[in-house]
Amino acid sequence: MSMSLVNSNSYLESLLRGQPRLPPSPLAWFNQLRANAVDHAGRLKLPTTRDEEWRFTDLSPLVRQSFQPALAAPALQAADVERFSLAEAAIRLVFVDGKYMPQLSTPAERLGNRGLIVTNLSSAITANAEAIEPHLGQYARFEDNLFAALNTAFLHDGALVMVPRGAAIDTPVHVLLIATQPEVASHPRCLFIAEAGSEITILEDYVSLNDAIYVTNAVTEIAVGDNAQISHIRVQRDSTEAFHIGNCAVSLGHAGRYRSVSVALGARISRYDLNTVLDAEGAECAIDGLALINGRQLADTHSSIDHAKPNCTSRQLHKCIADGSAHAVFNGKIMVRPGAQNTDSAQSSRNLLLNAKARIDTKPQLEIFADDVKCAHGATVGQLDSEELFYLKSRGLSGAAARNLLTYAFGAEIIDRIPIASLKYRLERTVLEQTKKTEP
Amino acid sequence: MIHQDSKTILEVSGLRAAVEGVEILKGVDLIVKSGEVHAIMGTNGSGKSTFAKVLAGHSAYQVTGGSVLFEGQNLFDLEPEERARAGVFLAFQYPIEIPGVSNSHFLRLAYNTLQSQRGKDELDPLEFEDFVREKMKLLEMNPNFLDRGVNEGFSGGEKKRNEMLQMALLEPRLAILDETDSGLDIDALRIVTNGVNKLANKDNAIILVTHYQRMLNYIEPDYVHVMRGGRIVKTGGKELALDLETRGYDWVGVERRVPASA
Ligand SMILES: Nc1ncnc2c1ncn2[C@@H]1O[C@H](COP(=O)(O)OP(=O)(O)OP(=O)(O)O)[C@@H](O)[C@H]1O
Ligand SMILES: [Mg+2]
Q1: What is the pTM of this model?
Q2: Mode of pairing for the β-strands spanning A173-179 and A298-307
Q3: Among B19, B22, B20, B11, which Cα is nearest to B66's?
Q4: Interface membership of A390 toward B (CB under 8 Å)
Q5: Assembly ipTM
């Protein structure tokens, strides 16, 4: 057995330390779920670049560092988080290093939205066990996913959003996950359930107060009911020294709609796995992503869209912008199951390399087992267009300003799809700043 | 307007330039003084656009000989953006589209860059909006072109008007209009040339590249040049353009061999 495996196993043990401190739940199934996860986490090995799914993402820098579970979270004041707040989002859940912060949060029950539940999972689970049990741990399977297993082993606080049947919620829900402490491993958890015919927009927002080295290991599960719709915006602006592992699993009911925009700007190494199962006829998903990275950052997005039933539609546009010696990875799998006739799927991966030292690996993967399908996909990796640069410079813009404007425009196509105006505006500023910073 | 004592803006001597190793410009000579309007005509492929793009600093063209002085300064010492800031403006024959870059954002950046270069105040987005709308009225352009990407999906004529809008905003010392008239309908030609005439004054100069007399009916040139095989082979007054219209190019610049008479 190689050294790295020995190391990584003792490393996992150290990550699992502290798990037994979690209070047992009165719910037997819940305790069982966690126990199973502990069991799997103990058995699974840290992936290496020899694993096909992790070819480009070397986790050895993670192993070289030791991380502890967060014992206590610092008591942040409202002023500390003010800069993250969004004008449109009256409903907000705040987690600091994975711990729920009631004093910073505005759960839905306080707004008197009858039936809408937006609250901390650990405090609401007993009262809503019947509604939660069919979903929690059911989509983000951990049998062969170490990080999902670890997260589930630590299952306690989390963002719970349940939209009752037929309710169209017009204010977005803001789930704000703040990292504050160095050398801490946190395991944020989200569960979003939209019952039949309901609609909601949810922002899952990872931020950091400093440039500490920490691990965020997040799991989100999303269940979209029949004819329901969830717009899910995920923004990852972790510290550029941090590690971010995210798993998101989505299940759609009959004619359910899932719209996702994910933006990765932060973290030294980030990995996001988004698995969507179109599990009933007429379901639709639109999955867009942007990774904008620089320096020695690595951002790896793996998505899978599973056309499990006939008459489903999927759309995907993923963009990577890599500067410095950054490395962006996109692996987009589209699976069309036998019998999933009349599938309509289009996937596009567009990539911009801003530096000769940067690298982008993109791999669209189509696996089609039905015959009556419409599937289009394409991938490009390019540089800024020299004619466009010349045009801008011929009007007086500096080379740097011209590059900045074109890079910004490339990324803005994704950001424009975010349905929350103030967030869109803020991200556009961030992208402009970030592209300014990245000029050679 | 020709004045004996006006300053020289552009002095091109023996300019040679190549693209991908093929020499296109083979010794261009041209002097442009302030207040003047020069028309350059000539057959397709004679090098007119190449000349214009060399002046603007396009990197695809290598200068292989000769010199260009712009207001006494070696133009080739300047990067394209420095030329623009010094007052050189090229309205492209084929303006490109830049999808995703908002036209208003681009116009404001360009305008403010030149303003600060000239030691003048920059405008914030709201002030600029008012300012640019006034300029658009002059060109009878619909303000909703501001909200689109730069030239994105614009018709041929709309692109040309957008070029003229940029010229109106940037107020160049030397404007080179490369076939700005082609693609414009009859009304648009009148509007655009009217706009150009309003911008022309005794301190700036205009080079018009065109194939047709109709533009010169609106903007009266002081000189008409004929380019052929990468050189200016004939220069005359505005009547030369009329001559060309009736006689074509065949007779121009071809050395006439007078048969020896015994
Ligand atoms: N990249 C290139 N490679 C090879 N030849 C080129 C290239 N670019 C231009 N040329 C050639 O240079 C010559 C001059 O082209 P240019 O565009 O300057 O002509 P023009 O006088 O503007 O013509 P028109 O009236 O049609 O606009 C043409 O023969 C053209 O084919
Ligand atoms: Mg031309």
Answers
A1: 0.87
A2: unpaired
A3: B11
A4: yes
A5: 0.94
Give the pLDDT band of residue A16 (cuts 50, 70, 90).
confident
Atom of ligand 1 lying closest to residue B227 CA: 21
Tell whether B105 is covered by a domain: yes
Euclidean distance between the first and the last CA atom of chain B, given in angstroms as a whole number = 47
Q: Report CB contact under 8 Å: A409, B98.
A: yes
Give dist(CA A231, CA A306) in Å, integer. Answer: 18
Q: To test ligand 1's pocket by mutation, which of B28, B50, B94, B231 has the most ligand atoms within 8 angstroms of CB?
A: B50
pLDDT (tens digit, 9 = 90+) per residue, A402-414? 999 999 999 999 9
Among the partner-chain residues B98, B110, B150, the one whose CB lies closest to the CB of A396 is: B110
Which position has the token pair 């300003």? A401
* B2 domain-assigned: no
* Domain ranges across chain A: 3-280, 386-440
| Phi–psi pair at A189, nearest 5 degrees | -135, 135
Cα separation of A250 and B79, whole Å? 52
State the nearest Cα–Cα gap between A435 and chain B, in angstroms. 14
Q: Which atom of ligand 1 is nearest the CA belonging to B230?
A: 14
Q: What residues contact B128, with CB distance under 8 A and at least 6 apart?
A: B104, B107, B108, B111, B112
Cβ separation A409–B96 shorter than 8 A = no
- Ligand lying nearest the CA atom of residue B46: 1
How near does any CA of chain A get to the CA of B152, in Å?
Answer: 12
CA of B203 to the centre of ligand 1 (A): 31
- CA nearest ligand 1 atom 26, residue: B44
Q: Which has the minimum average pLDDT: A247-251, A259-263, B80-84, B246-250?
A: B246-250
Best probe of the A interface among B98, B132, B154, B173, by most A CBs < 10 A, is B98
Are A200 and A212 contacting, i.e. CB atoms less than 8 angstroms apart?
no
CB contact under 8 A, B59 and A394: no
Closest CA to A242 of A214, A203, A265: A214
B78: CATH: 3.40.50.300
Q: Does some domain include residue B232? A: yes
Q: How far is CA A157 from CA A75, A200, A248, in A?
A: 16, 22, 17
Alpha-helical runs (H) found in A44-183: 60-63, 78-81, 121-124, 129-132, 146-153
Question: What residue numbers bound the domain in which B126 lies?
Answer: 8-256
A388, A401, A412 ranked by CB distance to B98: nearest: A388
Number of residues written out for chain A: 440
From residue A292, how far is each of A41, A270, A401 by CA, in Å? 31, 12, 17
Q: Which residue of A has its CA nearest to B92?
A: A391
Tell whether B262 is covered by a domain.
Answer: no
Indicate the number of domains in chain B.
1
